[in-house]
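Think of the structure tokens as a kind of shorthand, similar to the way a musician reads notation: each symbol stands for something richer, in this case the local conformation of the backbone. In the example below we present two proteins back to back. Begin with the first one, reading the sequence and then the tokens, and try to describe in your own words what changes along the chain.
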Amino acid sequence: MAGSLEFGRPQFRAYGCRNLHLLPQWRTLSRDQQTAIEAVSAVLPFRVNDYVLSELIDWSNIPNDPIYQLTFPQAGMLEPTDFSRLVDFVIKEEPEALKRAARRIQRRMNPHPAGQMDLNVPVMGGELLTGFQHKYRETLLFFPSQGQTCHAYCTYCFRWPQFVGIEELKFASHEVETLSAYVETHTEISDVLITGGDPMIMSTKVLRKYVSALLNPRFDHLSSIRIGTKALSYWPYRFLTDPDADDLLRLFEQVRNTGRQLALMAHFSHPRELETDACREAMRRITETGAVIRCQAPLIRHVNDDVGVWAEMWRAQVRLGAVPYYFFVERETGPNHYFEVPLARARKIFNSAYSQVSGLARTVRGPCMSAAPGKVEIVGVTEIGGERVFVLKMIQGRDPSWTGRVFFAQFDSQAVWLNDLEPAQGEAEFFFARSMRHMKDGLWRPDWQHGDFDDETASA
């Protein structure tokens, strides 16, 4: 393309827990740091590549560098007793005992929060579609089996169970026919989100099979195809110099030429990820296809719990033609005790950063919890009738009638998730609580999942 930068052809090379000793920087780490990485990576997925190692991490600021915290396992990510036990197995070189202990810890770490496994999986023809999630009426999530890994792993990833080798904890599907049949049957769907893992780990040839199926003219109710990815952060060469990079961009153009929107749901955790020439050129090439880049990430202690970081990141995204989209609250899974930020502080960080950017960056919404009932925004803190409360808003509800509803919770300076909050103003429970109980008991599900919506059951 005219005006494009020259990057050569960098070769992708990844490192994980099986080849830690091959990391170019491995010998620069202390023995305690090496042992901690070996121990924690037995529980939480670890994968990094040469681009992250050489372009993003500041090795003079280890272990406090935010990208290092973002990608490398840390001792504090496990409970002290668990960590000590695993370190002992590492030192004694007992791999089988290490693996057994790690599996026990993984089972305790809430592997699928917010009802992902038991509430979001739809049914078709009497069978559970395990490679799909359909939580919100208009949006279907699809997990292609070939996209269930990433160019590098985030230490806070809420989908960490996809990568630890426990098959029953995975969401994955390779059925193009099933995807087409479900979308055709469910005309309420306007958006399909292809996610993972990271779909950009797939070749364009494989990705095209799924995307092309969705471009069938009979799906006139489908207006947008979204692709969730962190490739712009961890391997921007996917859009620049990979052998099929140009073909990938042609696929994006093909989607736009059918009159549909192609939205690349980019995951940026820190402004440093936006600073490399490779990332910026990749974003330029993507936006030239007519695709829209929307940016989202959770607030993470040790990585981006800083007002200046968010304001700088949103400004950079707008400058590069992207749209700030969501400021999430870290989910209650994996090592969330290490990364969590109290909701009250999250709101202060968001407000302060939001006040420093122009209207073009104020497309971002948050702080937002992707909880079991839906996406809940922390609107603010106020006083009503002498009671200090959180003002909350259901941005998107599992039941569409909940969307936009404002409600209140007792202020709690230590609360980090919706489950930590209690209703305010004398209410016995939040407005969605009864319906959620019915759903968990199998008495009610929205009409696009199991059975038909039953107003009487849901409100009984």
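Once you have a description of the first chain, move to the second and do the same.
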Amino acid sequence: MKKILSVSGALLLLLGAVSATAPAAVAQPSPSANWHAEKACADVPAGSASCFALKYVDDSTTAGQAHGGQAKPASSTPPATGKTPADIQSAYNITGLQSGGRTVAVVDAYGYPNLERDLGVYRSQFGLPACTVSNGCLTIMDQNGGNKLPRFNSGWADETSLDVDAISAACPDCKILVVQATTAGLTDLGTAVSTAAKQPGVAAISNSYGGGDSADSSYGAYYNHPGIAVTASTGDNGYTGSSYPASSSYVTAVGGTSLVKNSSSRGWGESAWSGSGSGCSSVNAALPAAATFGTGCSKRASADVSAVADPQTGLAVYAPSSSTTSSWAQYGGTSLSSPLIAAMYALSGNTGSSSALANSLPYTNSGHFNDVASGSTGTCSTSQWCLSGTGWDGPTGVGTPNGVAGL
């Protein structure tokens, strides 16, 4: 994997909006000041997509110091700084909710033979109900809906483990459908999205990947599914322009935050994560629902909503370390925020009977979000596209969920 980011200094505790109903936070170790993030997937040429999963590596530990070609010891326990299902549910005020048997689909490229086994380890660790093929909770299929699963790819398998663990954390009783595209080409991935949309009970489809800004006239039909919430990660490169399919007019574009426990009544603080993708599409139409929010963009602006994505404040995940073995690690990137939002869409139950696109809901229900008003993703000509502030902004959209009523 490729080392892409290093950070020094203490992590600041930044206040987010307050939810008086969130459970009290429990003290958690602070992340290391000496760390780097590793991309799960390599960069790809035009016409293909890269997954956005980022692995947090603590360089102050033996495992962290062993990067640079040496073997890293596998971890048999979750990282102490990694978010747990209880953390996610507390931070986003997900309390006492049931999915009603709805399914969250994730679309990823390539195969992952040990997916069911590894998901079982994750769910058992945190006391979540079993989700297996035999009990009907987990379904795995190829991009055409069959069982000819593609070859293993370690980076995309890491991505898939992050996706299914994130869904489990936000919605423990949701069913999970994994559709594996043959390659990371946008046509294959799009075919997998269309296949997912045809399966019974699917309320949301998460896409934690992207390429450069592309036109809906080329790929949009794959993502246009009224009545199903289709989410897409905005990317991990900050303000560098739009990423497709997040820049599609048919999806909910999901940005990222840094999420830390604090002493507020909510118990959590959030700021825009510096790596969160944000921008203004040059080719796709603006969302009508966003017209009154002053995006400063005449076309499609992103993000629409956000959730935790900073790998330093990321999720504890049980992921493959080889084709046969797996271990605990901490992951972030907007690959984390997309499946979290998809799971919360499924919990809301607001999309299934609608003929409208689900990406309008956060704008019409913006009062149900924590407004993230600090942090930036870089330098831009229109400050809203890269600088968080009150109301809509590019890094975090209308904010992060305070319960699921806004979705």
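Compare your description with these statements about the second chain. The chain is about 20% helix and 25% strand.
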